[in-house]
Amino acid sequence: MHTIEHTDTAPNTALNTEQSDHVSPLQQARNLKLPSKSDMLRRAPSVENFWHQNSQLFEQAWTEWETIQTELPVLDDSLFDPTLRDAVTQAWKTPETEMAVKDLWQEILPGVYQGQFFDPTQLSQLRRYLQAVADANIPIRPPYGIALNRNGAMLDARSTGYIAAPHFQAFYHELMNRYMRPIARLLFADVYGYDTQTFGFSIQYQPTGDTSLQLHTDASAVTININLNLIDEPFTGSEVDFVDRHLGQSKQAIFEPGMAIIHRGNVPHAAHPITSGTRTNMVLWLYGDNMQVPRGVGLHSDIDANQRWTVPHSQPDRFAPF
Ligand SMILES: O=C(O)CCC(=O)C(=O)O
Ligand SMILES: [Fe+2]
């Protein structure tokens, strides 16, 4: 099949002739020749050009793709852990109840909290959606932050080659605005004002692919790292260490389905090699306009609950950390 039509207009010979020559954005995107892995790995300028020059086409292709998908899983509030969801819903209505949200997070090291974020029994929806994205044959750009993660994808519109499917984007915005930002503000009082800009990517580790990540910090004010493994997808190894240089301590986190770690970007962390199975995570960042992150004493130390449960007015900028 060369063209994809989804118009309800009555047949018209002249129009049909035109349409049979017309190559839809989805088809055009699928016809593109991808940059080679080696060019991608050495971050060749031609690779950057490829993603930039085709960015509009990709957005159109994802929109078209979504309209012709008949069995795409719905991504909505049911993905979130029910206890978290109820507490968050209540806090948006009555911000004074926000402590019920804070109480769901356990501090494992200064600046590092752990909690249940997604409902493991619902995660197959998100995973099936991401699989459909991978099968769409529209070029998607893997993240190359500390290392290239070949099976990952860029999630935020600021990044070239991101998952531009409108339904996915609506879910991503809901996650960032309704969940991540107020949770980050609750746990890290001084990030308020350094949380206007969003960024995100997914990653996947397996023994035969990308296996580990060296010790590093993130350029974010706050990062939330959420595990997307299903209940029947065990893995071994792949522990994530967080390091506190002042205390001379480190803490090892072992991800479980739906579990999240939310941490200040400046806490060093590293992922051990995975020894069996697969680990799939979603890594999301918040930072301020012009990539500002809080340093030392906060500018906004007198923020109250009503201010935390708001969405900032500032426009998303176009800068992409990677
Ligand atoms: O392996 C992980 O879950 C950590 C990922 C991470 O820190 C990163 O991608 O910056
Ligand atoms: Fe990181």
UniProtKB/TrEMBL annotation:
PROSITE patterns: FE2OG_OXY. Residues 9-18 have a biased composition (Polar residues). The keyword Iron-sulfur does not apply. Residues 1-27 are annotated as: Disordered. One of its GO terms (molecular function) is metal ion binding. The keyword Transport does not apply. Gene3D superfamilies: q2cbj1_9rhob like domain. Keywords: Iron, Metal-binding, Oxidoreductase, Vitamin C. It comes from the Bacteria. Residues 197-288 form the Fe2OG dioxygenase domain. Belongs to the iron/ascorbate-dependent oxidoreductase family. This is Fe2OG dioxygenase domain-containing protein. The lineage of its organism: Bacteria, Pseudomonadati, Pseudomonadota, Gammaproteobacteria, Moraxellales.
